[in-house]
Design brief:
By secondary structure, the protein is of the alpha/beta class. It has three domains: about 5-65 and about 200-280 and about 410-454, FAD/NAD(P)-binding domain, CATH 3.50.50.60; about 90-195, no CATH class; about 280-400. It is built from 14 helices and 18 strands. It has helices spanning about 15-25, 70-80, 110-120, 125-135, 150-155, 160-170, 180-195, 205-215, 260-265, 270-275, 350-355, 360-375, 395-400, 435-454, and strands at about 5-10, 30, 45, 50-55, 90, 95, 100-105, 200, 220-225, 230-235, 235-245, 250-255, 285-290, 305, 320-330, 340-350, 390-395, 425-430. Strands 1, 2, 9, 10, 11, 12 and 18 form a seven-stranded mixed β-sheet that branches. Strands 7-6-14-15-16-13-17 form a seven-stranded mixed β-sheet, with helices on both faces. A hairpin with a 4-residue loop joins strand 6 (about 95) and strand 7 (about 100-105). The longest helix is centred in the C-terminal third of the chain and has 18 residues, at about 360-375. The model has no long low-confidence stretch (mean pLDDT about 95). Bound molecules: flavin-adenine dinucleotide. Flavin-adenine dinucleotide binds near residues 15, 404, 431 and 441.
Length: about 450
Amino acid sequence: MEHYKLIIIGAGLSGLSAGLRHARTGESTLIVEQHSIAGGLNSYYTRKGLLLETGLHAITNYATKAQRSAPLTRLLRQLKIKHHEFEIYPHKFSEIAFPDTKLKFSNDFELFISEIAKQFPKQIDNFKNLVTAINDFDAFTPSKYISARTILSTYITDPLLIEMLLCPIQFYGGYQENDLDWAQFTIMFEALFKEGFFRCSGGIKWLLERLLSGYANQGGEIKFKSKVAKILKNKNKVLGIRLENGTEITCDAIISTAGTPNTLEFLEENNQDEIIATSGRLAYVESLFIYDYNTKFSTEAAITFFNNSNHFNYASPKTLVDYNSGVICFPGNFKNYTPERGQLRITHLANYTNWKVLDKQSYKTQKDTLAKQSLKAIPIPPPSHKAFFQDSFTPTTVERYTGKKNGSIYGSPIKNRLGLTNYDNCFIAGTDQGYLGIVGAMLSGLTIVNQQLL
Ligand SMILES: Cc1cc2nc3c(=O)[nH]c(=O)nc-3n(C[C@H](O)[C@H](O)[C@H](O)COP(=O)(O)OP(=O)(O)OC[C@H]3O[C@@H](n4cnc5c(N)ncnc54)[C@H](O)[C@@H]3O)c2cc1C
């Protein structure tokens, strides 16, 4: 029987970075992935000769090489990826667009401060005090849940500004309806507004290939099309995994990046209440449009977080899709970044159950409607030409390709910061540890290896 020091379940960004870090120690490492390629939530595919990304809008936590203690720089250093290998394209600016008010922000935080001073002159001192509170808070020491809304309202007295600050943060990491943990808010505020957005040349495919080749060069092994059905255990220790095809592989430790409820199922911890409580609730739809080279777009914003009323309702909609708010991404609006073709991505909140119950024909019809409705819903004029290719994903697409319960991108509403389980040598990493996004997922994989295995 094969035996490894460490088995990692999942070749998403957290699994790959955990694998790369562990393989560097020289100990045997195996990643098992159910899908035929790596990336999980953030991967790629080809259609009609076009290389398409499953999700990437922007990578957060922008930092230059000189910013040595920034999360991105520390991450790259630990993964032994040189900063210059990344050809980095920062966004020119992005914006939060509510009906009568817009706030621009870029990777220069001063722009955001000046926009708030312009749009909310009476709130600027309050906002600066909020920023001081965020700077002073240690989000990485596990603490009790504190409502971000409650803290925000102790600093900011204009409800519209509170809604506008929450909108991008919830869209890019909200695993809970209409509020989030203050610790999570501070991490996201730093990642989005203070550090900011970028894309890299080669997109997600380049990053995944770089992680995979680094991992292979350190002797790490990976098995694709290998779905874990069960974690083998004895008393308070895990012993290995059983794949769906019956193959058993033993190990000294396991890191699961498949999510808390899935991991509980692998462990046959049949506590249905806990499985339901840790299953994500919030799901999304996204449509991708590809345009000819000569298409003109009506905004220079790389990403627009929009909401068509002054109250932002970040909740699972009763209908299939909530078109009242969303995220618009133009990858071509990153500085000096020229994707092969014009691209537009539009994202909205969606209801998993309503999509799940559709029969095949209705599902197809609703997917076609989705793309059309999305183009009508966005608060900017549509592109000058018609898209020559379009595709959409729904919560059931996410569920099918990544195993995420309820198609929920941001996973469990109960995060497991330390990544510990009831078994001494079995750990949770990735989305359900509470580190979100591409950089967050990679930091999570690294942290679990550093803190629990080395
Ligand atoms: C549409 C979309 C757009 C996004 N845009 C951005 C963005 O612009 N910027 C950003 O920073 N973040 C973005 N994200 C979020 C980001 O992609 C995720 O936070 C991150 O990729 C999560 O990585 P992970 O490794 O924790 O989880 P996952 O990517 O879910 O990886 C888990 C892996 O485990 C595998 N797995 C599950 N069950 C099993 C099993 N039984 N056996 C074997 N393998 C299994 C899955 O197939 C998957 O590969 C986006 C996500 C989506 C879906």
